Input
Amino acid sequence: MVRARLIVLLTAFMLLTGLLGWQGGRSAPTAVAEEKPDESYTCTLLFARVMQMIRQDYVDGSKVGYKELTYAALRGMLSSLDPHSQFLDAESFQEMQRETKGEFSGLGIMVGVKDGAIVILSPIEDSPSSRAGLMPGDKILKIDGKSTEKMTLIEASRLLKGRAGEKAQLTLLRTIAGAPGGGTVFEVELTREMIRVSSVKDAKLLPVATAGQDKIGYVRIEEFGDNTSDELERALEKLEHEGMQALVIDLRNNPGGLLDAAVDVAGKFLPPNTVIVSTKGRTPDQTQEFRAQVERQHPDYPIALLINGYSASGAEIVAGALKDLNRAILVGETTFGKGSVQTVQPLGDGVGLRLTTAKYYTPSKKTIHEVGISPDIDVPITDAEERRIVLAESDRPLSPDEKAEAVKMEDRQLERAVTSLRSVRVYNERQAALNVAPKTTAAANQSVPKPADGSTTPAAAR
Output
């Protein structure tokens, strides 16, 4: 009887793996084919035997259904690969689809793994996390009393998500240089709600106190979703109508998002058909180039990008492309270094698979993953300065203590970006004047001026 059960279960499992292979749409890679001929059969048989033993002998019969065991095995299999691969059950699959459309239920926290810890990359504005005063870099120690010390990113994300109205208790560590234990541990109780994300914020001309008489535009992109390209297009049209001469794009604390959205954003400032990012995986279909495909080209005004250690994924694609192609000056700190490609594959019955299939490369073929994008002008800031910037940008009501902190805000990274753009504008105007003026021996022998910020090639930020 046991042997009969094993044969039936083994047959069913082999049919399942064959179905998944068919839905993936390609044959196994060469490296897998070179394994021992009987290894696939032996391992599949082992899996089937263990599942049957669990179903027969495990003490709690309510936990041994085929679906529950199969889903648990798939979750473990995917999570063993890297922090970003994931088996998506029906609820997770629907949640992922809602997130890309800019609406989902949860706490409004974008999280990642840094130095082995679950950290907040960015609290979404006007969300429970933002209103509670959570900050980029806060380490999540516990979720509803469960320690995150050995928790995967996917497990943490599942615990953070939930239905609107449900509560969550978080224990966090806020890093403070020189503090005992590395910082302050605190707890917050948040209520989940529907989160609606507007990805492009604060489109404006910078005030005279910051930009002087130059008309320097500023936009902040919180993440890359379905609506990002259209939102940015409207913001640029508004600023260009107001006479914008240069632009600062703030990608600090941007955790990424959709690849297509990041490519569209970078493509707004590059000639059509320019390679923005490429991917390379184990199979030929995972090696691709993504090119600029924008109908409307924007003026060739100077651009500065603000980046920091929590600029990740899509933000790094934009930064890497505009840096490599000499279209922008990067100011701030080296980015997060999340440069791998996750392909989402529906598997039927409402479930899916998110699998790391390739890595991103900048136009000059530099890898992003675990390296990040370095700035042209390095302007590190302290954790305290970072918190003040987040508070000053927040659209929620601040407590008296938070207001006192926000008033102290000094955005040295923005100031350095503005200085760079003004230097480039002065240089470009002088070059234009030289091109119009009659050629003279003295003019021909003039040395090329450099921006006051120390960047090496002013023409690199057109």
Residues 412-436 form the longest helix (25 residues). The CA atoms of residues 136 and 386 lie 8 Å apart. The first strand starts at residue 86 and ends at 88. DSSP finds 15 helices and 19 strands in the chain.
